[in-house]
Amino acid sequence: xxxxxxxxxxxxxxxxxxxxxxxxxxxxxxxxxxxxxxxxxxxxxxxxxxxxxxxxxxxxxxxxxxxxxxxxxxxxxxxxxxxxxxxxxxxxxxxxxxxxxxxxxxxxxxxxxxxxxxxxxxxxxxxxxxxxxxxxxx
Length: 138
Fold this sequence. Notes:
By secondary structure, the protein is mostly helical. The chain has a domain at 41-60 and 73-111. It is built from 4 helices and no strands. Helix 3 packs across helix 4 (89-111). The longest helix is centred in the first third of the chain and has 25 residues, at 3-27.
């Protein structure tokens, strides 16, 4: 069984469980759909996010290579994150969470788990180009 088959069976199982849960909630008169809001989880999510950000920041703020020039991407990223850390730690936390989500999505796409569905890279998908302006004559 391949990873794709395993993931497909897991997603099928999750969908089936969600359908059964929604049916049970409707049977007792509760709205189906979202899980109930659990305030106790908010503290855990906040702590987990902060811990994850600290770990990522520690890994990211490693000094760039010694021979890196001023336009080296690792050097530029290091400086940008260090400045962001001093200027706005809250924004840095949100930024790192955003980068983490993008990195996770990229890993999913690279492994083939995240199949494009009519996106720009899909064969047959239409893309529109902005019209070009006319060149002026001198």
